[in-house]
Amino acid sequence: MTDRSGADPSAPGSSTGLDLHLELPAGGARRTALARALREAVRSGRLAGGTRLPPYRTLAADLGLARNAVADAYAELVAEGWFTARQGSGTRVAEGAAASAVRAAPAGPAAGKPRHDLLQGKPDPASFPRGPWAASARRALAGAPTEAFGPGDPRGRPELRRALADYLSRTRGVRTGPENVVICSGFANGLRLLASVRPRDWALEAYGLPFHHGVLDAAGVRPYPVEVDEDGMRTAELPSRARTLLLTAAHQFPTGGRLLPARRAFAVEWARAGGGLIVEDDYDGEFRYDRRPVGAVQGLAPEHVVYAGSLSKSLSPAIRLGWLVLPDRQVADVLAEKGLRESWASALDQLALADFIECGGYDGHVRRMRRRYRERRDRLVSVLAARAPGARVTGISAGLHAVVELPPGGEAPALAAARAAGLALDGLSGYRHPAARGPAREGLVVGYAAPGEHAFDAALEALADVVRRVV
Amino acid sequence: MTDRSGADPSAPGSSTGLDLHLELPAGGARRTALARALREAVRSGRLAGGTRLPPYRTLAADLGLARNAVADAYAELVAEGWFTARQGSGTRVAEGAAASAVRAAPAGPAAGKPRHDLLQGKPDPASFPRGPWAASARRALAGAPTEAFGPGDPRGRPELRRALADYLSRTRGVRTGPENVVICSGFANGLRLLASVRPRDWALEAYGLPFHHGVLDAAGVRPYPVEVDEDGMRTAELPSRARTLLLTAAHQFPTGGRLLPARRAFAVEWARAGGGLIVEDDYDGEFRYDRRPVGAVQGLAPEHVVYAGSLSKSLSPAIRLGWLVLPDRQVADVLAEKGLRESWASALDQLALADFIECGGYDGHVRRMRRRYRERRDRLVSVLAARAPGARVTGISAGLHAVVELPPGGEAPALAAARAAGLALDGLSGYRHPAARGPAREGLVVGYAAPGEHAFDAALEALADVVRRVV
Q1: Which of B362, B391, B409 delimits the end of a domain?
Q2: What is the CATH number of the domain that holds A95?
Q3: Containing domain of residue A35, as a range?
Q4: Min CA distance, A28 vs chain B (Å)?
Q5: Does A262 lie in the same domain as A315?
Q6: Are residues A379 and A326 in the same domain?
Q7: What is the mean pLDDT of residues A425-445?
Q8: pLDDT at B85
Q9: Which residues of B touch A77 (CB under 8 A)?
Q10: Which of A188, B3, B33, B149 is the most exposed, having the fewest neighbouring CB atoms within 10 Å of its CB?
């Protein structure tokens, strides 16, 4: 046992009583080593499902680590599904985490493939428009200026920034020009940049992606979770200390609500009045099924909203491209944080996307996928209505996932049944921010976009079997 | 003036006496704000060329910042050319930094283009093989398995890892298999990963890229610079405390020496005997002009060397691809540090490169560029021999740059003359590690690969004019 404090957490005098067999190296490696030791402790059964982890502070003091290092390690394991974090009861080892260890192992997504995959977050990989994209890539390569093959501009290629400014204005009501667009390599990359240039008090929706919570944690952000309901975040409950607000306005992630117009107006007024900044994560704004797409909040107040988007849902996460549309006063800060070197995304992909947007290929792809995902959603709803009639499915008017609501106490047995059936999907409680108060909901988050056509029906049947048992 | 300590650095009682007009936000933004304030102080003339900056500790204490935050900000400004760092005399404001401010401004490389560009680090953008690459990209897209368009594997595409393992074994004598290759988005990205999983004591060559020094600084690495001469690093002077050694063995960067076989053997023995790890930065190992390429150190001891390479010199920095070839025991650590999300490079570029290597396109391109760069180097040497006969040009047997050695006191006037002539290039002293002891050399680092054919002769004439004045 090596640590700076000299304390031995496995000794009786330790306040945590956790025996992690830790050998902590120096520097940044300490967090990695802690996360690895925690994973190993779950995998080996030394930390049983349901065990409550010690508070950050306690374990940090025991190990002679910074509190942030422990918080980061916890967030990492929550994001990977080893731990769950719920209001009131702190961080716990996920039930069945050891059994499903294969899925989260660093060996990568290929290892331990589930029989049925309804994990959210993935568009349909089989629908990638190979031919049209190849044509755009070829045209882009042939027409690119020579300097495009030299060191890149951290702002991104001007061709893409122009194309995106037009596209976002036309389809999402974003008001901007190319000079306010900064290309990044995905939303998380953009979030990291923003976290580094903003004051540390952030308001967050009480539900969100644990990976994003971890990114903010690692950047030293102090989170203030605000409750969400079927109409999105309850903006009236915005804490006065927060200077930045992270918002999924078009389709709250993952609970599915659309932010009420009055709440949009309230959020914008909050930003205007107090010099605050809204970060609008428009992760699936293009896939609206019940009406025309809900416009971006950014259009209401371009000087107070950062609009963030990426290709990860609309086209493919295999192309590492995202974008920030920034208010004037944020552009220089974000570029300074990006730095001049190694901070740009593949120029070839950027040029190909610019062409793909301008030739209409991107619009066509989004239209096609909207029809396809809507049809998928209809099948999900009708199978559950027929096979598990008690189930309530929400968040279905947009996006690539839905929530199957479950009664209190229903989520853990549903997840256990799903694991037993080889059905990969997440519980809603895993998306709740660890610091959120108030009653948590239970449910299943069901991604319906990615399964192959041949696999989707079987996955729905497996889902209906699981849900029927608990509603 | 806002800071945590309440101290006001502009007040007479301050130990630095620097008036930076700092308003420091919380969290990660503080380093950014400090760097910005320092840049602004240089640009406005408040910090004149040659001014010695206060030591990290002193300024950190004055501003209530962590020492690392100040060290990072200094490293950033050294990397950007605002500051210089020399042995014995600490960090100083670069002479003429205010005048050349345009080049380093975050607005990007497009702003303030110099008349003649002999900055090192860039391959020839006009030679990018557009047609062959487009053909590889098309074949790769057509033949990719469906899962390639879904979430990526942090290890990288298996197709590329196989192709690289073969290629590096064939051309660089690297001994590895695909399972030890991890794709990253450039060398700096790989260096960051390694810095996070290794103990903090690193031995470095006394000369290197300031940007890399900054990356290591930011990761909390404690650097031990070791002197270099015409035969590369003096490995006999390796400090016993260091656990990791960063090495440019084939072509010391930027001084140009090739590591003597006896020194290679010594470094490997050092790693073997003490459980150390060598990180071999093979940034331009493919461009050897005097004989067959010098093989990688990795081939001598695959279990003690991380071999690192990228496309940035061999093909183009516009494709953000690099690779680490890792000893077995490092693979899991690096993957754990990478994490599962947002940590992979464009899958489409990866697949295209795999095809490009396998169809022989990459080999052909490297051969072609070797001939071209060798011819460029010959012109550089002959123009200087004719026009500035006193100049000694070194490091010329490989790579994309050379060093024009200058007598003591010659570098600053040469850089000033270069700026006056609109000639962009770096002084050798800017590459010296701030913590290196012993006598520093002076010189000019001349990149000869990137200029267009029409511009190269004029740039060489301008260089010869500058050099003639000081030798």
Answers
A1: B362
A2: 1.10.10.10
A3: 1-107
A4: 5
A5: yes
A6: no
A7: 93
A8: 75
A9: none
A10: B3
* Model confidence at B394: pLDDT above 80: yes
The answer to whether A122 contacts B151, with C-beta atoms less than 8 Å apart, is yes
Judge if A28 and A72 occupy the same domain.
Answer: yes
With CB atoms and an 8 Å threshold, state whether B336 touches A79.
Answer: no
Nearest to B341 among A153, A198, A211 (CB): A211
How many domains are there within chain A? Answer: 3
The answer to whether the CB atoms of A29 and B320 lie below 8 A apart is no
Give the pLDDT of residue A103: 35
From A155, A195, A317, residue closest to B108, measured CB to CB: A155
CA of B441 to nearest chain A CA: how many angstroms apart? 26
Q: How far is CA A247 from CA A184, A233, A388, in A?
A: 19, 8, 33
Closest chain B C-alpha to A200 CA, distance in angstroms: 6
The verdict on A339 and A290 lying in the same domain is yes
Tell if the CB–CB gap between B138 and A138 is shorter than 8 Å: yes
Find the CB nearest B346 among A29, A319, A338. Answer: A319
The nearest alpha carbon in chain B to A192 belongs to B28
pLDDT digits over B263-274, tens only? 999 999 999 999
Single pTM value for the model: 0.80
* Residue A20 reports pLDDT greater than 70: no
Q: A161-216: per-residue pLDDT in tens?
A: 999 999 999 999 999 999 999 999 999 999 999 999 999 999 999 999 999 999 99
Chosen domain end from A362, A396, A417: A362
Terminus-to-terminus CA distance in chain A, angstroms? 48
Per the CB < 8 A criterion, the answer to whether A257 and A228 are in contact is yes
* Reported ipTM exceeds the 0.85 cut: no
Predicted confidence (pLDDT) at residue B161 exceeds the cutoff of 70? yes
Exposure b/e, B340-374, CB count within 10 A at least 16 = b = bbbbbbbbbbbbbbbbbbbeebbeebbeebbebbb
Which chain B residues are Cβ-neighbours of A113 within 8 angstroms?
A: none
Using CB atoms, pick whichever of B27, B155, B195 lies closest to residue A108: B155
Q: pLDDT tens for residues B217-239?
A: 989 999 999 999 999 999 999 99
SS3 B81: coil
d(CA B187, CA A292): 45
B35 & B161 share domain: no
- Residue B318 to residue A149, Cβ atoms within 8 A: yes
Between chains, do B341 and A155 touch, taking CB under 8 Å as contact? no
Which residue among A28, A144, A337 sits closest to B220, beta carbon to beta carbon?
A28
Convert the pLDDT of each residue in B417-435 to its tens digit: 999 999 999 999 999 999 9
Q: How far apart are CA A376 and CA A384, in angstroms?
A: 12
- Please, what is the average pLDDT of chain A? 87
Of residues A417 and A35, the one with the higher pLDDT is A417
Measured between CA atoms, how close is B451 to chain A, in angstroms? Answer: 11
Cross-chain residue pair A32–B137, CB shorter than 8 Å: no
B contacts of A114 (beta carbons < 8 Å):
none
In CATH, what number is assigned to the domain containing residue B346?
3.40.640.10
Q: Are residues A272 and A165 in the same domain?
A: yes
Is the domain of A349 the same as that of A396?
Answer: no
User: Is there a contact between B134 and A137 (Cβ–Cβ < 8 Å)?
Assistant: yes
- What's the CA gap between B145 and B307, in Å, rounded? 29
Where residue A381 sits, what CATH number does that domain have? 3.90.1150.10
Per-residue confidence band for B65, with pLDDT thresholds at 50, 70 and 90: confident
Say which range, A81-85, A292-296, B131-135, has the weakest mean pLDDT.
Answer: A81-85
Which among A24-28, B39-43, B74-78, B314-318 has the top mean pLDDT? B314-318
Distance from C-alpha of A7 to C-alpha of A1, rounded to nearest angstrom: 9
The minimal CB distance from B35 to the residues A200, A318, A336 is found for A336
Same domain, A96 and A122: no
A25 Cα to chain B: minimum distance (Å)? 6
Q: What is the CA radius of gyration of chain B?
A: 22
- Taking each helix axis as running N to C, give the angle between helix A347-358 and helix A158-172, from 0 to 180 degrees, rounded to the nearest 10: 40
**What value does the mean pLDDT of chain B take?**
87
Query: How many interchain CB pairs under 8 A, A with B?
Result: 234
Q: What share of chain B is helix, strand, coil (3-state, %, to 5)?
A: 45, 15, 40
Q: Whose CA is closest to A108, among B136, B147, B328, B92? A: B147
Higher pLDDT pick, A297 / A32: A297
